[in-house]
Write a structure and sequence with these properties.
single chain; alpha+beta; 3-stranded antiparallel sheet; two-stranded parallel ribbon; 7 helices; 61% helix
Length: 325
């Protein structure tokens, strides 16, 4: 048995309406087509999302331990600098971007057209399931009628056998008539077995069309009245052109293909893009006194160099004006 079939049990008395409801709930092929409609709905949401701007945010943190830094074989302490303090680094960046082109604009109407096509395909699957289940239901009824006729033929053959045997007993018949009646009974019994197998096979096929495991422990409860149809040819043609699910599905598919052509042409349209961003960086030392002392030492060195230059300028034959140290 296929694992795709449901384990649901058919009620003992099954009407055609109940069979159709069970099929729409359990038929795997129908459920697959209906699930495609949900996928198409999510594609529409994705197309709407493509029209929104994109945003990004990043941040980082790092730590540098204290110690001596080397420049080749020389350390900073040998150059007159003490041990470096530890540092904590942090940074962040924020970005906002927006891009719009023809494919993004055409994606939404194409997704809606694809959704309509999937809905139409779902209607085709529903109509096909209804047709197959109804056909299987009527086939079981036909097999049951055939079984009733076969049982009536068996009863008639058994009656003829009893009559032939009675005629042989009273001497008004021949043994050949009795043998022929026995053959007719045997053939009728075979016909009954074939009809019973046909009923059981028909119920199996009906259960499979409903998406259930093959089972035959149920009876059909619906009956149908035979009446002469009074349709007009033009009326049927007009109704088929307007309501036929397969034709509506093909029209919806054609519309999807038209949007696919438009999307392909939109690749030649210009693209409009905007972007904006901001970022920041911070560094914090574990010992701020070291940085203050380093800055002060650098300032004192600049002042001393300025004073030395002023002294040099004053010794020239044509002294230069001194700098403000």
């Amino acid at each position: 048995v296929s694992p795709l079939l449901s384990q649901e049990q058919i009620p003992p008395s099954l009407t055609l309406e109940e069979a159709l409801r069970i099929a729409q709930r359990n038929n795997p092929l129908l459920q697959a087509d209906l699930n495609n409609t949900e996928v198409a709905e999510w594609n529409i949401k994705a197309a709407y999302g493509a029209l929104l701007p994109g945003a990004s945010a990043n941040s980082s943190f790092s730590w540098q331990g204290s110690g001596e830094q080397r420049f080749g074989s020389v350390t900073l302490s040998e150059l007159g600098f003490g041990n470096q303090p530890s540092y904590l680094f942090s940074s962040y960046s924020l970005g906002l971007s927006y891009s719009l082109d023809g494919r993004v604009l055409m994606a939404l109407p194409q997704a809606k057209a694809d959704r309509d096509a999937q809905v139409a395909q779902g209607e085709v699957s529903i109509a096909q399931t209804v047709f197959l289940v109804t056909q299987a239901y009527l086939e079981v009824l036909r097999q049951e009628e055939g079984l009733a006729v076969a049982r009536q033929e068996l009863e008639r053959a058994e009656g003829n056998l009893r009559l032939a045997q009675g005629q042989v007993t009273v001497g008004s018949g021949t043994p050949l008539d009795s043998r022929q009646a026995e053959v007719a009974v045997g053939r009728s019994r075979v016909s009954v077995l074939v009809a019973e197998n046909g009923v059981r096979t028909g119920k199996f096929r009906l259960a499979q069309q409903m998406g259930l495991d093959p089972q035959d422990g149920f009876e059909l409860a619906s009956s149908f009245e035979v009446s002469e149809p009074n349709w007009e040819e033009d009326e049927l043609i007009s109704l088929a052109l307007e309501m036929n699910p397969s034709l509506r599905g093909l029209r919806a598919t054609q519309k999807v293909q038209e949007y696919s052509v438009k999307m392909a042409k939109s690749a030649y349209f210009p693209t409009l893009s905007f972007s904006a961003g901001t970022s920041g960086f911070a560094r914090e030392a574990s010992d701020p006194d070291y940085l203050v002392g380093q800055a002060q030492g650098s300032s004192f060195a600049q002042i001393a160099r300025c004073q030395a230059e002023n002294d040099l300028y004053s010794r020239l034959a044509d002294p230069l004006p001194p700098q403000d140290c």
